[in-house]
UniProtKB/TrEMBL annotation, chain A:
The keyword Lyase applies. This is Hydroxymethylglutaryl-CoA lyase, mitochondrial. Keywords: Acetylation, Disulfide bond, Lipid metabolism, Lyase, Metal-binding, Mitochondrion, Peroxisome. GO terms for biological process: ketone body biosynthetic process; L-leucine catabolic process. NCBIfam families: PRK05692.1. The keyword Lyase applies. Mitochondrial 3-hydroxy-3-methylglutaryl-CoA lyase that catalyzes a cation-dependent cleavage of (S)-3-hydroxy-3-methylglutaryl-CoA into acetyl-CoA and acetoacetate, a key step in ketogenesis. Terminal step in leucine catabolism. Ketone bodies (beta-hydroxybutyrate, acetoacetate and acetone) are essential as an alternative source of energy to glucose, as lipid precursors and as regulators of metabolism. Pathway: Metabolic intermediate metabolism; (S)-3-hydroxy-3-methylglutaryl-CoA degradation; acetoacetate from (S)-3-hydroxy-3-methylglutaryl-CoA: step 1/1. Gene3D superfamilies: Aldolase class I. It comes from Upupa epops (Eurasian hoopoe).
Automatic annotation (TrEMBL), chain B:
This is hydroxymethylglutaryl-CoA lyase. Pathway: Metabolic intermediate metabolism; (S)-3-hydroxy-3-methylglutaryl-CoA degradation; acetoacetate from (S)-3-hydroxy-3-methylglutaryl-CoA: step 1/1. GO terms for cellular component: cytosol; endoplasmic reticulum. Keywords: Lyase, Metal-binding. Residues 50-317 form the Pyruvate carboxyltransferase domain. It is an enzyme of class 4 (lyase).
Length: 308, 345
């Protein structure tokens, strides 16, 4: 029986860029509203850990996402450490303009590989959603602001179920062609496994260079690190994660969501892959925000570090 | 993600999602895409079939604080026997002074249903335990070595070499009676006392157990500190001494690395994986931390890779639900957590 050289741990990337989404994706999916000063402290602490990218907030209407209502205050209140990027979500041109006015220098836009998910979320088709983003892209280009593109539901959709890798590749290609410098492929409901991750990436990598790809895995079914491992084996070198595994899953009450940054960094350290992140400082930050949220951490590394 | 949709209630039930994503079906009925998935796993260089060894009733319960009544243990094992699991570690013939949870080993061994095609190994630390086990009806036994001198000293108050001599006595008696013996090597990726453990030491201990007649060697990441990096290094060393078909991995999820470590192992050809229903069993070395990897989560991953296990995931989740209710605790299985909260199961 042959074991393919790639599978048996051939070349892993030497460095991985960890994109910290806790302050946005994490907090957005937490029940308790976090006061603005706590959000700012969280981001400032994260800025001390060696992380290079920290998603700070989301310029959406507070009617939809009350947790992110203080986006302007947060953006203006954080220490912007040189060398660290603080991207923010901008669902439309209005949000983009707000973001730039508040000092944002990088933005993200969210597409999806599922028509039904797009319809339920923002009441339009995928095509229409990308047309809306066109305005953002034009404005971003004019202002020399880099744009990161997210594709949701890449390994499954809570409404459609199975998602075809070809669809994911199609949406990724469109967003990349529009000018997104990086495409983050999101397993929104955490349902993917190394098998489906590999299949999806194979399709996407035909359309988008692997250097422009990131994976955003949810750990709802415990598969995140195994899925990330496969992505790394295929050459992906950008991974999204959330400190303390903040952020549950809106589709499965009580279930977990984002993969914990601590657990990811632990694995990457063990593989000898450079991240630049100080695990202890990261754990301390996780402890801080969990105390503030009055909740237990979702990071196993953090849990294990409490010894008798 | 974007906004939280108000149409949440229209999202698909967990059962629907699982059935679509993976061919989770009755072990009796072959999966609809069986041929395809076999080819898929083969094309990727992974084993077509993986044997899952269920250690919940022994390793799991042994590390749970609450003492479980005998009839509950028996019911758990009986439920597990109906899931398609090929091997279920039943109990441990150790002195009840050391391991109170396993004090009822004879009653459990005699009380369980024995399903054809299912193995029911038991732990036997020495010849006395072995004889007790045989008298109670055991037809397969396990012995536990370790790749760490300090761990062996702290656990059973002797050196690794002295422990091997004890196991040789068991192996000899077992051979005379045609009883298969499985060997465990603890601390394969790290020791709570010594820290790093040399892959060469793991290989040495594994080889010793294999040479004395153990048909299979289960390499245990006792404190779950391993990562795909250290798993690969350790397996490379061990595979120089023992054929990969005689190897199993027993990963703890204390640092969340278990599935990634298991994936690495199966990519290297390992085709036997130990796990514990509902992820039963905490870690005695890290208070409040988790221990064994959850069988449900392992099956979910293997199914998604097109690897056949013969195990019905839903049936395992039901057994997990049963024992967690009895223990009054939440499951450690993420698959079970996601399932019981979305829809009817």
């Amino acid at each position: 029986r042959q074991v393919s050289s790639a599978a048996a741990g051939g070349a892993f990337p030497k460095r991985v860029k960890v994109v910290e989404v806790g302050p946005r994706d994490g907090l957005q999916n937490e029940k308790n509203i976090v006061p603005t000063p706590v959000k700012i402290s969280l981001i400032n602490m994260l800025s001390e850990t060696g992380l290079q990218v920290i998603e700070a907030t989301s310029f959406v209407s507070p009617k939809w996402v009350p947790q992110m209502a203080d986006h302007t205050e947060v953006m203006q209140g954080i220490n912007k450490v040189p060398g660290i990027s603080y991207p923010v979500l901008t669902p439309n041109l209005k949000g983009f303009q707000s973001a730039v006015a508040a000092g944002a220098r990088e933005v993200s836009i969210f597409g999806a590989a599922s028509e039904l998910f797009t319809k339920k979320n923002i009441n339009c088709s995928i095509e229409e959603s990308l047309e809306r983003f066109d305005e953002v892209m034009t404005a971003a280009k004019a202002a020399s602001i880099p744009v990161r593109g997210y594709v949701s539901c890449v390994l499954g959709c809570p409404y459609e179920g199975k998602i075809s890798p070809a669809k994911v590749a199609e949406v990724s290609k469109k967003m990349f062609s529009m000018g997104c410098y990086e495409i983050s492929l999101g397993d929104t409901i955490g349902i993917g496994t190394p098998g489906s991750m590999k299949e999806m990436l194979t399709a996407v990598m035909k359309e988008v260079p692997v250097g422009a790809l990131a994976v955003h895995c949810h750990d709802t079914y415990g598969q995140a690190l195994a899925n990330i491992l496969v992505a790394l084996q295929m050459g992906v070198s950008v991974v999204d994660a959330s400190v303390a595994g903040l952020g549950g899953c809106p589709y499965a009450q009580g279930a977990s969501g984002n993969v914990a940054t601590e657990d990811l960094v632990y694995m990457l350290n063990g593989l000898g892959i450079h991240t630049g992140v100080d695990l202890q400082k990261l754990m301390d930050t996780g402890t801080f925000i969990c105390n503030a949220l009055n909740r237990r951490t979702n990071s196993k590394v953090s849990q294990a570090s409490c010894r008798l | 993600m974007g906004t939280v949709p108000s149409a949440l209630k229209h999202c698909l039930s967990h059962q629907h999602l699982l059935k679509e994503q993976l061919w989770i079906s009755d072990p009796a009925a072959p999966p609809p895409a069986a041929l395809h998935s076999g080819q898929e796993s083969q094309a990727s260089g992974l084993p077509e079939y993986i044997k899952i060894v269920e250690v919940g009733p022994r390793d799991g319960l042994q590390n749970e604080k609450v003492i479980v009544p005998t009839d509950i243990k028996i019911e758990l094992i009986n439920q597990l026997s109906k899931t398609g699991l090929p091997a279920i570690e039943v109990t441990s013939f150790v002195s009840s002074k050391w391991v109170p949870q396993m004090a009822d080993h004879k009653e459990v061994m005699r009380g369980i249903e024995r399903h054809p095609g299912v193995q029911y190994p038991v732990l036997t630390p020495n010849l006395q335990g072995f004889n007790s086990a045989i008298a109670a009806g055991a037809t397969e036994v396990s012995v536990f070595g370790a790749a760490s001198e300090s761990f062996t000293k702290m656990n059973i108050n002797c050196s690794v070499e002295e422990s091997m001599i004890k196991f040789e006595e068991v192996a000899k008696s077992a051979r005379n009676m045609n009883i298969p013996v499985r060997g465990y090597v603890s601390c394969a990726l790290g020791c709570p006392y010594e820290g790093n453990v040399a892959p060469a030491k793991v290989a040495e201990v594994a080889k010793r157990l294999y040479s004395m007649g153990c048909y299979e060697i289960s390499l245990g990441d006792t404190i779950g500190v391993g990562t795909p990096g250290s798993m690969k290094g350790m397996l490379q060393a061990v595979m120089k001494e023992i054929p990969v078909s005689a190897l199993a991995v027993h990963c703890h999820d204390t640092y969340g690395q278990a599935l990634a470590n298991i994936l690495t192992a199966i990519q290297m050809g390992v085709a036997v994986v130990d796990s514990s229903v509902a992820g039963l069993g905490g870690c005695p070395y890290a208070k409040g931390a988790t221990g064994n990897v959850a069988t449900e989560d392992v099956i979910y991953m293997l199914s998604g890779l097109g690897i056949h296990t013969g195990v019905n995931l839903y049936a395992v989740m039901e057994a997990g639900n049963f024992i967690c209710t009895a223990l009054n605790k939440k499951t450690n299985s993420k698959v079970a957590q996601a399932s019981f909260n979305t829809g009817a199961i």
